[in-house]
Amino acid sequence: MEYIKLNNGVTMPMLGFGVYQMNDLAECEKSVTDAIQAGYRLIDTASKYGNEEAVGKGIKNSGVAREELFITTKLWLQDAGYEHTKKAFELSLKNLGLDYLDLYLIHQPFNDVYGSWRAMEALYKEGKIRAIGVSNFRPDRLMDFILYNEIKPAVNQIETHPFNQQIENNQFLTDNDILHQSWSPFGQGKLNVFENELLNNIAKKHNKSVAQVVLRWMIQRGIVVIPKSVHLKRIKENINVFDFKLDDTDMKDIKSIDTGKSTFKNHTDPEVVKWFSEL
């Protein structure tokens, strides 16, 4: 495993395990246990996913000491605001069966994010969270946060994959010492990422799978990545990316397939903001 240091000195694994849309709770619990036993140390969930309790059980079943793990969850927008955030945090902690979090993120850049951030700063100072950050924030919103809060976000988790590479966003995050973390590293399986001819040729060159090439490409860009799978074979495959490196030609070629377009939702679209508020 490779690690990266956050802007507050906390060390975070470069590759973790995501549980988005793991709605079968028994399957989620087993997958988390399988992932940790396969070597993953970063587990990423969210209150909105509805599976924090299953994640907590999977962590407990793994038999791995808590201090070896890096656990992330996220605050949903309906829980925004100072008091609501504190209550939501305690509920997430209870569901996970943990005494502290390694990383707590504001899930969406809407509602009273400033009230939420002040609560998260307080929880951080109390030692209940080792690092705090955001998710789905565009550079302008993030700069606003940097300028007008006491504690700068340690992480911004955003959609990043070969077809939406976030090149300018990545540079902004690097310039401002905020870690770039990817969600949906395979673009939710859309745009036929696993059938892409270029990625398949690179995979054959290194005797790896397309998934492994994509994850390695992300890691070499300094981006933390959290692939998801419920299949043990793929769980093990996805973490087996630290025994090879992509060369400059590979990196340049992958850059050529960037469309700069989301495969999910445009967070700057007012209708999308309304849609999120109704979830």
List keywords for this structure.
single chain, 279 residues, alpha/beta, TIM Barrel, eight-stranded parallel sheet, two-stranded antiparallel ribbon, 11 helices, 10 strands, globular, NADP
How would you summarize this macromolecular structure in one to three sentences?
This protein is α/β, with parallel strands linked by helices. The chain is 42% helix and 13% strand. The protein has eleven helices and ten strands.
Task: Describe the fold and architecture.
- With 279 residues, the protein is an alpha/beta fold.
- It has a single domain, classed as NADP-dependent oxidoreductase domain (TIM Barrel).
- It has 11 helices and 10 strands.
- It has an 8-stranded parallel sheet. Strands 1-2 form a two-stranded antiparallel sheet.
- Helix 1 packs parallel to helix 9, helix 2 crosses helix 3 and helix 3 packs across helix 4.
- The radius of gyration is 18 Å and the shape is globular.
